Description:
Helices cover 13% and strands 33% of the residues. The protein starts with a strand and ends in a 5-residue tail after the last strand. A hairpin with a 2-residue loop joins strand 3 (33-37) and strand 4. By secondary structure, the protein is α+β, with helices and mostly antiparallel strands.
Amino acid sequence: MRITVNNEARDTQADTVEALVEETLGEVPEAGTAVAVDGEVVPRSQWTNTKLIDGSAVDVLTAVQGG
Length: 67
């Protein structure tokens, strides 16, 4: 399917938020990551249940520490 991730068009086989985060980041982090699908924040507890569809717009944000 074709979706947009962080404003970049992408083809993916990921069908859930969790699968997409793993595909995007290489692993599913324990904390410090937020996801929104079509402008709606998806709680971490719902990543495995939230299905993606063709045309979805997904934002994956990670916390970065530094100074």
